[in-house]
Amino acid sequence: MTDQKAPPEHRVVLPVDPARRTEIDKQRVPMSARPYRLLALVKQDAVVRVQKEPDDTVMTWPHLLSIEFLAAVFMSVFLLFMGLFVNAPLEELANPNVTPEVAKAPWYFLGLQELLAYFHPTVAGALVPLFVLVGAAMIPFVDRENIRANRPSDRKTAVVLFSLFCGLGLVLTFLGIFFRGPGYAFTLPWVSGFHFSL
Amino acid sequence: MSFLERVDQTIRRSPVFRSIFRNPYPNDERSRAYAVMNNVFLHLHPVRVRQHAVKFAYTFCLGGLSFFLFLVLTVTGVYLMFFYAPSATQAYSDILQIQSQVPFGLLTRNIHRWAAHLMVFFVFLHMMRVFYHGAYKPPREFNWVVGVVLLFLTLFLSFTGYLLPWDQIAYWAITIGSNMAGYAPLFNTPSKTLLLAGLEVSGNTLLRFYVLHIMVFPLVAAVFLAVHFWRIRKDGGISGPL
Lengths: 198, 242
Known about the structure:
CATH topology of the largest domain in chain B: Cytochrome Bc1 Complex, Chain C
Number of helices of chain A: 7
CATH class of the largest domain in chain B: Mainly Alpha
Largest sheet of chain A: none
Helix content of chain B: 55-70%
Strand content of chain B: under 5%
Order of helices and strands of chain B: HHHEHHHHHHHH
Radius of gyration of chain A: 37 Å
Radius of gyration of chain B: 23 Å
Distance between the termini of chain B: 51 Å
CATH architecture of the largest domain in chain B: Up-down Bundle
CATH superfamily of the largest domain in chain B: Cytochrome Bc1 Complex, Chain C
Number of strands of chain B: 1
Largest sheet of chain B: none
Shape of chain B: flat
Number of helices of chain B: 11
Structural class of chain A: mainly alpha
Helix content of chain A: 40-55%
Order of helices and strands of chain A: HHEHHHHH
Strand content of chain A: under 5%
Oligomer: heterodimer
Number of domains of chain B: 2
Distance between the termini of chain A: 83 Å
């Protein structure tokens, strides 16, 4: 209790010595001459924000997290219903001596299997997948034109090439799934039925 | 105060509850920021995200859902592992047993199967979404490369899992798929031997695919996923609006 603060009357601000008046002191208006009163305080934040760019961010909690949660819930419900109503395929025990009538790769490799029907195996089985993977990884280092542009209309070449590539993959996979039957021969699904299992 | 509210309050005020959740339910900006920052699972996210990024039609949640499917596959996969032995003599009967004897076995196997196909599909879609948004452009080039590695890992996770039921579909799909590796010039035989542990699909292949499927690829994928998510933050968050 020894370090009590000095009573307020000892801390009265004395008028500034006229010889040492700064620019700010000159602009000061005596209290009695002030033609206005303080009506409200505006937070500094609000004043500063006028000069700032409008804030385009939102809080992660709850805006992003609620969407993620909803997406996860919908996906869970969808998977639950799929699991309840559609059974995963299971055929008879594997037998290396019996080649089934229809032997197809998993659907994501069916495009390659379809290519096997047209090209030499080295091309379809090894060079194309290698080219696709390495090519995909190199996209950002090859596409250096219009480096800032991210609007599809500003980078038509890249978008068209990529779309063509995806379309080609889609068509090949589609052919492999629906239009290939026993012995991987060409069939029409509406004539000889559906030869595919996921 | 109703009975339920009293129970709720008692739980919230208990020392056990407060030792788990240090802060009350976040209702203002400051506490919401702390909730994201101080939670080990949520701190993957920044405290604030750009407004266009939370619009569903920008990302369609494709990357997030791919990761969610990865988690679903981990959980259902671990459950299936309890009832499955990767041997040519036992694998198929184990699958039959899982479908008929194991509680929720059929459901778990179905979910694992459909989630796996869906994950491959969603990773493809995610890649297309990222391309059309030009989100691979600087400074995000390397994260695109990490993404391509993750696509490769996803395909091989699915491919190795495809063999495990050891039925006719599995056996012949893997035979065809791995025949393609045998067409590689120069190193065709070594690459096939490495993949199949032999010159054709056998019990050794089953064991090899099993170890790759349940241990090697998931671990490698988890590392690349961590890098992938980390890089999103470090490269300045999600890519800009169109």
